[in-house]
């Protein structure tokens, strides 16, 4: 386990799809994000309670893919130090550290992970003027975490621990079928990133933190009244102790409303192994519909055609 991570937090997830107009409408009018910048076929979406310039970037393309996952660093010198470490370790850079021309600017390095996803780490991004989310306001406060499917999850988890200094918080298994989900942290939140065993490399889900349980349930109810199919939930996970309601966006990506994600004590935390054959480990409340193969298959998502391909922006 590394204690020298130069990564401070999760910034944003950038995705592409043919159904751009429908996606933009879903995330702004239904999900509760705010468009802060954009151009033809590109939209930058912020969470009202977050200082990040944007937490989701949508881009129109003929193919559905994940453009990149972005994390923060404290200083430009940390970006340079990380880039030097990655080069020394044989990691392939997408581009060397340089200034960003996206909202808020900043200084960033981009590189491929072991399976070809593009990762960006940036510093000196100008904080966005944000606000306190009020009681009963059922819109996201921030981007909580992102999980990715992997056909080689043990190797991918090891890659993020070795090269980026992530720490393992907890692991899920399914009885004798073995381990299937790993939760990784880069700060004291239980997880900002995670890896799920799947048939191919692809986006698994992105989770958005709500103000509290009341706002989480109000958001869940709003989506139900709007006729948006709920995949799974509402319930409360054991690992991370967070609530969950999962949906599909207009491109078939899984998105989650959550709240009260656990904050860990770095000095005393020891990873747990939770067995999902005990239903309380999946849902402590017992209120969610039963997890099944249909739900799992939807979150396995489509094969990502963008592996080892740098996004155009």
UniProtKB/TrEMBL annotation:
<dbReference type="InterPro" id="IPR037523">
    <property type="entry name" value="VOC_core"/>
</dbReference>
<feature type="domain" description="VOC">
    <location>
        <begin position="142"/>
        <end position="260"/>
    </location>
</feature>
<protein>
    <submittedName>
        <fullName>Oxidoreductase</fullName>
    </submittedName>
</protein>
<dbReference type="InterPro" id="IPR029068">
    <property type="entry name" value="Glyas_Bleomycin-R_OHBP_Dase"/>
</dbReference>
<dbReference type="InterPro" id="IPR004360">
    <property type="entry name" value="Glyas_Fos-R_dOase_dom"/>
</dbReference>
<feature type="domain" description="VOC">
    <location>
        <begin position="9"/>
        <end position="124"/>
    </location>
</feature>
<dbReference type="Pfam" id="PF00903">
    <property type="entry name" value="Glyoxalase"/>
</dbReference>
């Amino acid at each position: 386990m590394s204690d020298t991570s130069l990564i401070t937090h999760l910034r944003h997830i950038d995705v592409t799809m043919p159904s751009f107009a429908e996606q933009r409408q879903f995330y702004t009018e239904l999900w509760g994000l705010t468009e802060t910048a954009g151009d033809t076929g590109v939209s930058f979406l912020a969470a009202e309670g977050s200082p990040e310039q944007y937490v989701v970037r949508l881009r129109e393309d003929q193919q559905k893919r994940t453009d990149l996952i972005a994390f923060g660093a404290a200083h430009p010198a940390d970006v340079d130090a990380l880039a030097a470490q990655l080069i020394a370790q044989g990691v392939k850079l997408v581009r060397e550290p340089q200034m960003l021309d996206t909202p808020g600017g900043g200084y960033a390095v981009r590189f491929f992970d072991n399976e070809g996803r593009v990762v960006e780490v940036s510093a000196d991004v100008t904080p966005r003027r944000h606000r306190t989310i009020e009681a009963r306001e059922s819109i996201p406060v921030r981007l909580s975490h992102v999980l990715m499917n992997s056909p080689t999850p043990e190797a991918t988890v090891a890659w993020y621990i070795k090269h980026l200094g992530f720490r393992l918080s907890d692991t899920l298994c399914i009885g004798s079928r073995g381990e299937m989900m790993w939760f990784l942290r880069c700060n004291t939140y239980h997880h900002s990133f995670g890896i799920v065993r799947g048939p191919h490399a692809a986006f698994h889900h992105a989770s958005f933190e709500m103000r509290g349980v009341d706002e989480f349930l109000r958001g869940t109810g709003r989506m139900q009244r709007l006729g948006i199919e709920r995949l799974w939930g509402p319930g409360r996970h054991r690992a991370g102790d967070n609530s969950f309601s999962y949906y599909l966006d207009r491109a078939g990506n899984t998105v989650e409303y959550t709240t009260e994600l656990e904050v860990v004590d770095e000095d005393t935390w020891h990873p747990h192994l939770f067995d999902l054959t005990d239903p309380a480990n999946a849902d402590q409340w017992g209120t969610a519909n039963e997890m099944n193969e249909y739900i799992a298959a939807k979150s396995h998502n489509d094969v990502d055609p963008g592996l080892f391909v740098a996004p155009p922006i």
